[in-house]
Design goal:
single chain, about 325 residues, alpha/beta, 2 domains, five-stranded antiparallel β-sheet, 11 helices, 15 strands, about 35% helix, elongated
Length: about 325
């Protein structure tokens, strides 16, 4: 299995802008335990980068290092164009961090939490109130602004937490498992907030255990296993690393089915369902080739379905130490 997927373009094929976060040879150990074993990262500005990995893989350690909370043992590290080793204060001024556990003070109101953060950023009283009011409205927290944060739901606390992070108008934000413990509706609300931030040019470094979250949000994804990057690429690139993809053709005309079954190579037949399964990595070129062949042969399939492995399959394959996943979930099906 390839160890990584390299690319110099975004999902739409456009060139990547300069890196907002870069790491070369990042290492960190605690005693004899190697947590990060020489990882390399390059995150373009205005994109979402997701770092995936099982518990204890080193995701939070990477965030803590890149956000200057702890120091690395080795590595050439730059955030926002600033060298972490020589100018950590400039890095802190350029970033915002939302950790796994809320920084919200439950004993004071949401508004007071915001104003406290404004004071920490040395904003004037008037500017602090203006910024707090704008962010409370942006995150739909105006009605709850005067209530103690301890009365907020989990989703409201996470929104307040992120709003507090944005007081200093950072262009790079580290989100360490930002939706852990949220219900599906609150999680989707947070996704929309993240998308809006990125649309405004913010760079997001996201760690998550929700594979769907990475699939939904990230331009690029890296899978961290045993302190190293096991693979990196877009969600679609990573899915193509895993075997098991195929195209299924279903027919209602037995004659068309028989003609296709005889002519196509490497197919698995299902005579009862009148369907054929063709191994495929799901690329557009391969799909077009099959469609062109059907057209030239005058054969029409009633249904064509592309089956691709999902990120669950990728995650289990790359973090289990085996070359082929156990397929814990059925492949997703996208009828074309």
């Amino acid at each position: 299995m390839p160890s990584s997927v390299m690319s110099t373009s975004n999902r739409d094929g456009s060139p990547q802008p300069p890196a907002a976060v870069s790491a070369v040879g990042l290492r960190k150990s605690y005693g004899d335990k190697v947590v990060l074993d020489g990882i390399d990262l390059s995150i373009p500005a205005g994109s979402v980068f997701a770092l995936l990995g099982p518990n204890g893989a080193g995701k939070t350690t990477a965030v803590k290092i890149l956000s200057t909370l702890i120091t690395a043992d080795a590595g050439d590290l730059h955030v926002g164009g600033h060298d972490l080793a020589t100018d950590p204060q400039a890095v802190r001024a350029a970033i915002g961090v939302t950790g796994q556990f809320s920084a919200v003070d439950g004993l004071i109101t949401g508004e007071e939490n915001m104003l406290l953060m404004a004071d920490l950023h040395h904003l004037s009283k008037s500017e602090g109130r203006r910024v707090a009011a704008e962010l409370l409205e942006r995150f739909d927290l105006v009605d709850a602004a005067k209530k103690p944060a301890s009365t907020y739901s989990g989703g409201m606390k996470r929104r307040l937490d992120l709003a507090m992070t944005l007081v200093g108008n950072p262009r790079i934000i580290f989100l360490d498992e930002p939706t852990t413990g949220l219900d599906p509706r609150s999680r989707h609300n947070m996704w929309n907030i993240i998308r809006n931030l990125v649309a405004g040019g913010v760079t997001v470094f996201l760690t998550t255990q929700y594979l769907e979250e990475a699939d939904e949000l990230a331009d690029r994804i890296a899978v961290l296993s045993d302190g190293r990057i096991a693979a990196e690429g877009s969600a679609e690139e990573l899915k193509r690393l895993i075997p098991g993809g195929h195209i299924r053709l279903r027919f209602t005309d037995p004659a068309a089915y028989q003609a296709a079954a005889v002519a196509l190579r490497e197919v698995t037949r299902d005579d009862e369902a009148l369907s054929l399964q063709i191994p495929s990595d799901g690329t557009q070129r391969e799909l077009r080739s099959i469609l062109d062949w059907l057209d030239s042969a005058g054969i029409e399939a009633d249904e064509l379905t592309v089956h691709t492995p999902d990120l669950d399959d990728v995650f289990f394959a790359l973090t289990s130490g085996t070359s082929v996943p156990n397929q814990p979930n059925q492949p997703k099906e996208n009828v074309r």
